[in-house]
Amino acid sequence: MTDRPRPAAAPRAATTAVRGGLARSHHGETCEALYLTSGFVYDDAAQAEATFLGEADHYQYSRFGNPTVTMFEQRLAALEGAEACRATASGMAAVNAALLAQLKAGDRVVASRALFGSCHWIVSTLLPKFGIESTFVDGTDLAQWRAALSRPASAVLLETPSNPCLDIIDLEAVAALAHDAGAVVMVDNVFATPLLQRPLAFGADVVIYSGTKHIDGQGRCLGGAVLGRRRWIEETLQPFIRNTGPAISPFNAWIMLKGLETLPVRLEAMCRSAAEIADMLAAEPAVARVLYPGRADHPQHALAMRQMSAGGTVVSFELAGGKEAAFRFMDALGLIDISNNLGDAKSLVTHPATTTHMRIGPAERARLGIGDGLVRLSVGLEDVRDLIEDLRRALAAARLARAAE
């Protein structure tokens, strides 16, 4: 195959999402190949030895690396602006691998309190079992970050926007404080995706994704990814992944790879609909508050617009009447599904207090602002007019049910 001329300028995001990391085989396939294999063969014993010594560039075993997985990793790294990426079996596998690869007994991690429930459990419950000290702070309060990072730390973990209240954390300020304390800054960027926010540009060292969300985008399979500087990925993270086995399957990596192709188109439409829905909900009498970074009334709106290019695909809102009102509203929805996933082509709604954040307990939920009336809506690709009609019908039905009691 003859070499084709290369573009003069670096490709833009939408082009990278379709063509980044593309490695065609000698067959010249249009669609990226799915290498559904556990192992690989060698030309001779010497090549096998050289491969295990790291002296030959050859795949060994799909737990260590796989051509399909490599294409996904390279494409996501190009979108993120990262030097390297490693894919994992799930988003939680990515969080766990990033932390445990970096930390050891006697170390200390500082984390924003507003974390996804399983992330919160790792920091609050799992890490202390290994002799790792955990300190939580209010992520939006720089004074708390300053106090917590006034002594050495090995890692900082945060989400921005956070799940489910969409708190925005000042990445540049926290990264500067963390680096002074000797910490590696890890950012869960699931809600923003690499298209709305690039944490590395604000000083973060590591970016973590659940590919199960927007990257797949159609609720098909699990996957995760960890991105950062090549040296940290290869010397710190890769040995942990190689030897503990949180590897993504080639099939799931292929699904994620194909999901990236449509991510820019999907995200633009979903963000546009989310902004319209947030404005609609803010005008509803039954809604006590709306949390959406793209709205001027969001507590960290100005910061969000400095760090993000749009408000995102998730809208959280509090219904007057607590859990009963939230349940009545959700049960009255005819189009939007009840599910704890997000970033899907289908709009999904969940009640964090009884699902994703149930196990952190009522005291911690209260501290995070996760009330019993809080609902998280992940806006999908349906016609926004249909979504608004469904939301209005459900709000009206919930009000009528309450009035009839």
Q: Could you explain the architecture of this structure?
A:
It is a single chain. The protein has 2 domains: 13-259, Aspartate Aminotransferase, domain 2 (3-Layer(aba) Sandwich); 263-404, Aspartate Aminotransferase, domain 1 (Alpha-Beta Complex), CATH 3.90.1150.10. The protein contains 14 helices and 12 strands. The chain has helices at residues 13-19, 45-53, 67-80, 91-102, 117-129, 142-148, 171-180, 193-196, 230-244, 250-282, 301-307, 322-331, 362-368, 384-404; strands at residues 84-88, 108-112, 133-137, 155-159, 184-188, 206-210, 224-228, 287-291, 314-319, 337-338, 348-350, 374-378. Helix 8 (193-196) links the parallel strand 5 (184-188) and strand 6 (206-210). The protein is globular and about 75 Å long.
Annotate the secondary structure layout.
Blueprint: H1 13-19, H2 45-53, H3 67-80, E1 84-88, H4 91-102, E2 108-112, H5 117-129, E3 133-137, H6 142-148, E4 155-159, H7 171-180, E5 184-188, H8 193-196, E6 206-210, E7 224-228, H9 230-244, H10 250-282, E8 287-291, H11 301-307, E9 314-319, H12 322-331, E10 337-338, E11 348-350, H13 362-368, E12 374-378, H14 384-404
Parallel strand pairs: 2-3, 2-4, 4-5, 5-6, 10-11
Antiparallel strand pairs: 1-7, 6-7, 8-9, 9-12, 11-12
